[in-house]
Amino acid sequence: MLKKAQRIERIFAPSELSGFNESHCIHLPVAFIYELTFADSLNAVLDTVAKWVGQIFEADRASISIQKDAEHLQLYAINGNQAIPMEFALPIAKTFIGRAFESSKLMICDDTTVSDEEDCIMLSSGGLGSCMDAPMIHCGVTIGTLNVADTRTHCYSKAQAIQLQCLANWIALNIRLHLQLKEMNLLASTDELTGTFNRRRFTFESHENMQRFLQSRIPYVIGILDVDLFKDLNDRYGHTTGDQVLKDLTANVRQHIRKQDFLARIGGEEFAIILPACVAEEAEDIFERVRESIEQHTFSYDAHRIHYTVSIGYAEVGLDDQHYEDVFKRADKALYKAKANNRNQVCLGV
């Protein structure tokens, strides 16, 4: 908190910054809005906003923070002065910005040199004399703050506070829309049962790997994994047990493939695995580890000990391939070969 005898701050509730008539407006550069239309990620949106807010307020520093956890705010964009660096996690307690966030009120510190709050001390040490922090509010929830600072003390007016709060609320809406779009894209590409990616995302990733190969000759491998005698498992133990087998399989495979590898459920008990920057010899070792781990594994469900095996067919992209389906078809044929040879095998498609 600021020392009472020296406190130089102003606090505005949202209602104090919205009680203007319908003719009141704020002006934004057309280039700002135009540049936002090309922001293809949340980070790009925040970087663009920090840049233009800095210009609009002629600020020596502009930044955006978003709640990281119950105790911290995280800086996601900074334009100008680096007195508080990006990697610094701002405590919500005992900071000026934290009070603005927790109270959902715009706050102005007219003189950072008289503050004993951590962020104001850092700003002052970095040559900044005043700051203004606006809560980013959407549907009554504060998700972060939009902040400006200046080397001068007593720099900001109530008119500027109105403008910054309007921008903060608008940015909060943009952030929510980007997060919702990201969530929608994730739901559209995720298998509901196993939490892995689905066939739609597999098609996209396969195409991307094929394009990298055509452009840069970076090899990759597609593997197709199928649970052996899955219908018998369902008939014997029930479909809920079958669902547990697929979940158990997913967890097991993830433990034995590389971090950069891609796993998707592409139908029923069938999964696809993409191994980027990988050749057939290395892929064989990976798939054998997966197969062997599953063969040696059992788990308990509904008073039963469940054991199952898998068959895997795989193929490496070749110089004559022009489409990922060329690779997929060879892997699929190899899977059928593994099934025909008493299952529980790994086979290479050529």
From TrEMBL:
<dbReference type="InterPro" id="IPR000160">
    <property type="entry name" value="GGDEF_dom"/>
</dbReference>
<dbReference type="InterPro" id="IPR029787">
    <property type="entry name" value="Nucleotide_cyclase"/>
</dbReference>
<dbReference type="GO" id="GO:0052621">
    <property type="term" value="F:diguanylate cyclase activity"/>
</dbReference>
<dbReference type="Pfam" id="PF01590">
    <property type="entry name" value="GAF"/>
</dbReference>
<dbReference type="InterPro" id="IPR029016">
    <property type="entry name" value="GAF-like_dom_sf"/>
</dbReference>
<dbReference type="Pfam" id="PF00990">
    <property type="entry name" value="GGDEF"/>
</dbReference>
<dbReference type="InterPro" id="IPR043128">
    <property type="entry name" value="Rev_trsase/Diguanyl_cyclase"/>
</dbReference>
<feature type="domain" description="GGDEF">
    <location>
        <begin position="218"/>
        <end position="350"/>
    </location>
</feature>
<dbReference type="InterPro" id="IPR003018">
    <property type="entry name" value="GAF"/>
</dbReference>
<dbReference type="InterPro" id="IPR050469">
    <property type="entry name" value="Diguanylate_Cyclase"/>
</dbReference>
<protein>
    <recommendedName>
        <fullName>diguanylate cyclase</fullName>
        <ecNumber>2.7.7.65</ecNumber>
    </recommendedName>
</protein>
